[in-house]
Amino acid sequence: MKISVEKIGILSAIVGLSLSGAASAEVKVATVDMQRAIQSVAKGKKAKEQLEKEFNAKKKELQAEEASIKKMGEEFKKQSLVMSDEARSKKQAELQDRIMKFQELTAKSQVEIQTKERDLTQPIVGKLRVIISELAKKKSYSLVLEKNENTVLYSEDKDDLTDDLIHSFDQQTKS
After folding, report:
1. Residue 147, C-beta contacts closer than 8 angstroms, at least 6 positions apart
2. 33, 38, 109, 129: least buried by Cβ within 10 Å?
3. What is the pTM of this model?
4. Which residues pair with residue 29 across a beta bridge?
């Protein structure tokens, strides 16, 4: 909650300074839903497909390993009553080692997917920012805010540049 209050305070200060510095000039504020823009442009859809493909492959690999570990654990439970203490300890250590490796693999996979997502979306975001700047200048907006639940609670549809942004991005990046 504190962050949202700070953002609102900063926004109020920016708008206040703009109004006081140019009392007669009109301040126009637009919004852009960056998440929707990224997911809607052709390159964003392609990046999402690629990420989903890689995610599903990793998920399948992890599920197979998880099933194997569960099976190993069930077998250990069944056999532990007839095992010697030494054999039981050895088998339990093997099982724990495999569980730890599985957890490490899961964490590594999550980091890889996040890194891949950042690598795929960063160029898209950069290009979107350039287009936002062009659209804002063309339509005489003084300020463009990212529209999401935490920062912009209301804005008029006429001041939402998202559709124009998506259209311009796809036009400029057609290949």
Report:
1. 31, 32, 33, 34, 155, 160, 162
2. 129
3. 0.70
4. 143
Inform me whether the pLDDT recorded for 60 exceeds 80: yes
CA-closest candidate to residue 147, choices 11, 46, 21, 35: 35
Give the Å distances, CA to CA, from 151 to 9, 120, 144. 11, 25, 12
Q: What average pLDDT does the chain have?
A: 87
Tell me which DSSP letter residue 152 carries: -
Q: Which long-range contacts (CB under 8 A, 24 or more apart) does 163-168 make?
A: 164/135, 165/32, 165/37, 165/128, 165/131, 165/132, 165/135, 166/36, 166/37, 166/40, 166/41, 168/131, 168/134, 168/135
CA-to-CA distance for 120 and 126, rounded, in angstroms?
Answer: 11
